[in-house]
Automatic annotation (TrEMBL), chain A:
Name the UniProt record assigns to this protein: General transcription and DNA repair factor IIH subunit TFB4
Entry keyword Zinc: yes
Signal peptide: none
Gene3D superfamilies: von Willebrand factor, type A domain
Binding partners and assembly: Component of the 7-subunit TFIIH core complex composed of XPB/SSL2, XPD/RAD3, SSL1, TFB1, TFB2, TFB4 and TFB5, which is active in NER. The core complex associates with the 3-subunit CTD-kinase module TFIIK composed of CCL1, KIN28 and TFB3 to form the 10-subunit holoenzyme (holo-TFIIH) active in transcription.
UniProt keyword list: DNA damage, DNA repair, Metal-binding, Nucleus, Transcription, Transcription regulation, Zinc, Zinc-finger
Pfam families in UniProt: Tfb4
Gene Ontology biological process terms from the UniProt entry: nucleotide-excision repair; regulation of DNA-templated transcription
Summary of the function given for this chain in its UniProt record: Component of the general transcription and DNA repair factor IIH (TFIIH) core complex, which is involved in general and transcription-coupled nucleotide excision repair (NER) of damaged DNA and, when complexed to TFIIK, in RNA transcription by RNA polymerase II. In NER, TFIIH acts by opening DNA around the lesion to allow the excision of the damaged oligonucleotide and its replacement by a new DNA fragment. In transcription, TFIIH has an essential role in transcription initiation.
Location within or outside the cell: Nucleus
Organism: Mycena albidolilacea
Main location: nucleus
Family named by the database record: Belongs to the TFB4 family.
From TrEMBL, chain B:
PROSITE patterns: VWFA, ZINC_FINGER_C2H2_1
Compositional bias segments (type: Basic residues): 25-44
Localization, UniProt: Nucleus
One term of GO molecular function: zinc ion binding
Function, in words: Component of the general transcription and DNA repair factor IIH (TFIIH) core complex, which is involved in general and transcription-coupled nucleotide excision repair (NER) of damaged DNA and, when complexed to TFIIK, in RNA transcription by RNA polymerase II.
Zn finger spans (C4-type): 332-349
InterPro entries in alphabetical order: C1-like_sf (IPR046349), Ssl1-like (IPR007198), TFIIH_C1-like_dom (IPR004595), TFIIH_SSL1/p44 (IPR012170), VWF_A (IPR002035), vWFA_dom_sf (IPR036465), Znf_C2H2_type (IPR013087), Znf_RING/FYVE/PHD (IPR013083)
Residue ranges constituting the VWFA domain according to the UniProt record: 102-253
Name of the protein: General transcription and DNA repair factor IIH
Alphabetical list of Gene3D superfamilies matching this protein: von Willebrand factor, type A domain, Zinc/RING finger domain, C3HC4 (zinc finger)
Gene Ontology biological process terms from the UniProt entry: DNA-templated transcription; nucleotide-excision repair; regulation of transcription by RNA polymerase II
Length: 344, 441
C-alpha cells in the first residue's frame, strides 16, 4: 500500500513532428481513427492534470521534440511566470501546466512555419530524451549547495521511481540508434522507467527495446480515439502498481540493431570483433577502428550474403514477415541456405 | 646554479614533506642531497606502511577539507575539477582492447583460506570481493563470460559453468556452505580444468584465468611446467592475486602468459589488485608494429543475428537447445529456431545470436561526447538563462577563485551545438548518458 501513497515524478517527452501529426489527422481512407494535434493536446493536458491531481507532491516535466530541436515545455520545479488572465474557476496548478505547454508549443510551431524549410528535419526525440534524463538526474541528486541559493526554497524531494513517458509519432530514426541505446543504459543506471506510447505509425524497434530494458510498458495505439483512456489506464499508475492492474504487455521485443555503414535496421549483421561495430555487408576494413579483416572470412561471408540481402529487404516491414524471407532463403540454396533447408 | 635550485624548491614544495627548506640556502649541494633522501623516505613510507598487521588506518575524512564557512563545496568542486581535467587529458589515441572476454575465476578453497589475517577470514573476504568483482566485470565487459573453478582437497572442482549472465555466476558462489575450504590446493589440476573448459573458444575472444591464491603450497600430480607451456600455446592469460606471499611458480605463471601478479597487503589492496583486472586488457598493437598492411590475426568479422524475444505469455513450444516446452525464448533471425538464452550459437544454423543491447553497451567508448569547454566570463556566456539539459537557472554572478578547468559562471559549452550546461549535467552527460542533449548524438 505504501507504493500508492508515495509521490512520483513523471517526465513526458512529446514528439511534435508537424509532418507526422498532419498524416495522423487525415480522414477515413488513410486512418481508421484520425487524431489531430489539437485533440491530442487536449487529451494530453487532461492526462498531465490527472498526474498532478493524484498527489500534491507529484512532480511533472514536459519536453517537446520538434524538428531538429528539443525544448523543455514545463517543469514543476521551475516557477512559471503567472499568465495574464487567471480563470476564477480553474485550479491554478492545472492552468499553469496547460497554459505553459500550449503557449510554448504554439510559439515553437509558429517559428517553424516562418522558417519554411523545403524538407522537414527529423524530430529531435533523442535530445528531448537526453534532457529528460538530465532533469531526472537533477531531481534525484540531493539538493546541492548551488541550487540552494537560487531555487527559492523549493526543494523537490528525492522521489522514488522516476518515469519517462515517450509519446511518439515518428518512425525509427536509424541515425539515433547509438544515442538511444546510451540513453537506455543511463535510464537503467538512474533506475528510471521508460514508458512508450506509439501513437501513430508502425512499431519502433528502438523504443520497444527502451521500454523492455527499463521495465516500462510499450503500447502501440490501435484505437487512437481512446488515447486518454490508454494514457490513464496504463501510464498513470507507477510501475509498482501496474502488476496488480495487469497493464497490456509487450507482444514481442525486437532486438534488431542499426548498422553503422548505411544506418539500415538489420536482423543479421556483420560485427567487427575488435570494436563491435555492426555492418550490413562484409567489409574489408572496419570503418570505425580501421581493423583489416582476413580475406578468407570475407569470402566466406560474401558467399552467405545474397541470402541476407533478400531476407532483410522483405523482413523490415511492420509485421516482420520473416517466414517469407525464409522461403527465399530455401530456394536460393547457398552456403547458409543448405543448413537452413536441412532445418525445415 | 641558482636557477636549478629554484626549480628544485618548487618540486619540493609540491610534495607533502617540506621541512627545512628555508634554512640552508648556502650549502646547495648538501641540501639537495638531504632533501632527496627525505623525499625518497617519504615515498617509501607511503607504500610500505600499509600492511594489515601494522594496524594503520586511513582517515578518509581528513582528505576532505572544510572551508572557512564550514562548507564542503570547495572540496567537492576541487574533486569535480580533477575529474574534468582527467577527462580532458584522457589519451586521444585509440587503444585497442579485447572486448569479448572469457574468464575462469579460480578460487583457492584450501584450509589456508581460513586464516584470519584479513577480516573476517580470507575466505569470506574473497567471496565478498569476488561478488563485487563479478558485478563490476560484467558491467564493463557485457559480452564476456565467467566460469568459476574451486581448488580444494587436491582437485579442481567446477563450481559454475561459463556463463554470460552475472546472476548465474553469482548464484554459483552464493552459498558459502558449499564452498567450505578443505585440504590442500592443486594449481595444476584446476588450471587444467579451466584450460579444458576454454579449449573450444574462437580466436577473437580472450581466454583468461584469474587465480585468487591464499596458500603457500600446491599439490600437483605432474609437472606444472607442462601445464604452463600448454597455457602459453593456448594463449591463456593467467593472473594471480596472492593473499599470503609471492611464490615462484605463481610469478612464473603470470610472467610467461603476460598476466598480472600481485600480493595483497591488506583488504583494500586486495580489492585494488582484483579490480585492476576488470578493464579489458589492451591488445598488443600487432598491426602497428608490422606496418599498416598487416592484418591482425585476432581481428575478424563475425556474422551475428539479432533475435526476437518471445513474451512469457506466448504459447509454449519446444526449444532447440534443451528440447523442453517453454513459452519464453528467442527466435533465431535466420532459421527461426527457438533458443532459451542469448548470447549463444544457434543449434540449427550455427549463427551467433546476440542481443543487440549487449553490443550497444560498449558503443559509448567508440563515439564519446566531446568534452565541454568551460565558459570563463559572463561576457562570454550566451543569453540562455538556464542549463540546456536540466533547465537549472545559471548563477548570475561569477564566482571568484574558481580553480583550473572550472567555469566561474557555472557554464560549460558543447563545442558542437554551442548549448551551455551546468556542471552537474556536464558530469552526467560525460560519465553516464554519453549523449549530448543539444546535438542529440
Amino acid at each position: 500500500m505504501d507504493d500508492i501513497s508515495q509521490a512520483s515524478h513523471l517526465s513526458v517527452v512529446v514528439d511534435l513532428s508537424p509532418m507526422h501529426w498532419d498524416l495522423s489527422a487525415r480522414e477515413a481512407p488513410e486512418n481508421t481513427y484520425p487524431l489531430s494535434l489539437a485533440s491530442f493536446l487536449s487529451q494530453l493536458l487532461a492526462f498531465l492534470n490527472t498526474h498532478i491531481a493524484c498527489r500534491h507532491e507529484n512532480t511533472l516535466a514536459v519536453f517537446g521534440a520538434f524538428p531538429g530541436k528539443s525544448i523543455m515545455l514545463y517543469s514543476s520545479s521551475d516557477p512559471v511566470s503567472p499568465s495574464a488572465e487567471m480563470h476564477a474557476n480553474a485550479y491554478p496548478p492545472f492552468q499553469a501546466v496547460d497554459s505553459a505547454v500550449v503557449q510554448r508549443i504554439t510559439a515553437e510551431l509558429d517559428a517553424l512555419e516562418l522558417r519554411d524549410d523545403e524538407e522537414e528535419a527529423p524530430s529531435a526525440l533523442v535530445g528531448a530524451l537526453a534532457k529528460a534524463l538530465c532533469y531526472v538526474n537533477r531531481i534525484t541528486l540531493p539538493p546541492s549547495a548551488n541550487s540552494k541559493a537560487q531555487a527559492n526554497g523549493f526543494h523537490p524531494g528525492v522521489l522514488p521511481d522516476p518515469r519517462i513517458l515517450i509519446l511518439s509519432v515518428s518512425p525509427d530514426l536509424a541515425t539515433s540508434y547509438i544515442p538511444i541505446m546510451n540513453s537506455i543504459f543511463s535510464a537503467q543506471k538512474l533506475k528510471a522507467t521508460i514508458d512508450v506510447c506509439q501513437i501513430y505509425g508502425p512499431n519502433t524497434v528502438f523504443l520497444q527495446q527502451a521500454a523492455h530494458l527499463t521495465g516500462g510498458s510499450y503500447i502501440l495505439l490501435e484505437r487512437r480515439d481512446a488515447l486518454l483512456q490508454y494514457l490513464i489506464m496504463s501510464f498513470l499508475p507507477p510501475p509498482s502498481i501496474r502488476r496488480t492492474l495487469s497493464v497490456p504487455t509487450q507482444e514481442q521485443v525486437d532486438f534488431r540493431a542499426a548498422c553503422f555503414c548505411h544506418k539500415n535496421i538489420v536482423d543479421i549483421g556483420f560485427v567487427c570483433s575488435v570494436c563491435l561495430s555492426i555492418f550490413c555487408q562484409p567489409l574489408a576494413v572496419c570503418t570505425t577502428c580501421r581493423t583489416k579483416f582476413p580475406i578468407k572470412t570475407l569470402q566466406r561471408l560474401n558467399a552467405a550474403r545474397p541470402l541476407l540481402a533478400t531476407a532483410t529487404a522483405t523482413g523490415n516491414a511492420n509485421g516482420r514477415p520473416r517466414v517469407q524471407s525464409g522461403a527465399v532463403l530455401g530456394a536460393n540454396g547457398g552456403v547458409g541456405g543448405a543448413v537452413a533447408n536441412g532445418a525445415r | 646554479m641558482p636557477r636549478r635550485d629554484a626549480e628544485y624548491m618548487e618540486v619540493d614544495s609540491d610534495s607533502d614533506i617540506s621541512i627545512g627548506d628555508g634554512t640552508g640556502r648556502k650549502g646547495k649541494g648538501k641540501e639537495k642531497a638531504g632533501d632527496k633522501r627525505k623525499k625518497d623516505k617519504g615515498k617509501g613510507k607511503a607504500t610500505e606502511a600499509a600492511y594489515t598487521w601494522e594496524a594503520s588506518y586511513t582517515r578518509s575524512w581528513d582528505t576532505v577539507q572544510e572551508d572557512e564557512a564550514g562548507s564542503l563545496q570547495g572540496a567537492v568542486e576541487d574533486w569535480m575539477a580533477r575529474g574534468r581535467r582527467r577527462r580532458l587529458l584522457a589519451p586521444a589515441a585509440p587503444v585497442r582492447r579485447t572486448i569479448i572476454r572469457h574468464l575462469v575465476l579460480l578460487l583457492d578453497l584450501s584450509t589456508s583460506m581460513l586464516d584470519r589475517d584479513m577480516r573476517p577470514t580470507r575466505f569470506d573476504l574473497t567471496l565478498q570481493y569476488a561478488r563485487e568483482f563479478i558485478v563490476e566485470w560484467f558491467d564493463q565487459n557485457p559480452l564476456g563470460q565467467i566460469g568459476v573453478v574451486g581448488m580444494r582437497a587436491g582437485i579442481g572442482e567446477r563450481i559454475g559453468e561459463m556463463s554470460g549472465n552475472p546472476q548465474d555466476v553469482l548464484k554459483a558462489i552464493a552459498d558459502r556452505h558449499k564452498l567450505e575450504p578443505v585440504g590442500e590446493p592443486s594449481l595444476q589440476n584446476s588450471i587444467e580444468l579451466a584450460r579444458s573448459s576454454m579449449n573450444h573458444l574462437p580466436t577473437h575472444s580472450s581466454r583468461e584465468i584469474l587465480i585468487i591464491f591464499g596458500s603457500l603450497t600446491t599439490c600437483d600430480p605432474g609437472n606444472i611446467h607442462d601445464t604452463l607451456d600448454a597455457c602459453v600455446t593456448n594463449k591463456i592469460r593467467i593472473s594471480v592475486v596472492a593473499l599470503a606471499a609471492e611464490m615462484k611458480i605463481c610469478r612464473e605463471l603470470c610472467d610467461k602468459t603476460a598476466g598480472q601478479f600481485g600480493v595483497a597487503m591488506n583488504e583494500g589492496h586486495f580489492k585494488d589488485l582484483l579490480f585492476e583486472l576488470i578493464p579489458p586488457p589492451a591488445q598488443k598493437a600487432l598491426s602497428r608494429a608490422a606496418g599498416a598492411g598487416a592484418t591482425n590475426p585476432a581481428a575478424d568479422l563475425m556474422m551475428m543475428g539479432f533475435p526476437t524475444r518471445l513474451p512469457d505469455a506466448s504459447p509454449p513450444s519446444l526449444c532447440v537447445c534443451h528440447s523442453e516446452l517453454r513459452s519464453e525464448g528467442f527466435l533465431c533471425p535466420r532459421c527461426l529456431a527457438k533458443v532459451c538464452d542469448v548470447p549463444t550459437d544457434c543449434d540449427v544454423c550455427d549463427l551467433m545470436i546476440v542481443s543487440s543491447p549487449h553490443l550497444a553497451r560498449s558503443y559509448h567508448h567508440l563515439f564519446p561526447v566531446k568534452p565541454y569547454t568551460a565558459v570563463m566570463s559572463i561576457a562570454d556566456a550566451s543569453v540562455s538563462i538556464g542549463c540546456h539539459g536540466c533547465a537549472r537557472v545559471f548563477p548570475t554572478v561569477a564566482l571568484t577563485g574558481a580553480s583550473e578547468g572550472l567555469s566561474p559562471v557555472g557554464r560549460y559549452r558543447c563545442p558542437e551545438c554551442l548549448g551551455e550546461f551546468c556542471s552537474d549535467c556536464d558530469v552526467f552527460v560525460h560519465d553516464v548518458t554519453h549523449v549530448c542533449p543539444g546535438c542529440g548524438k
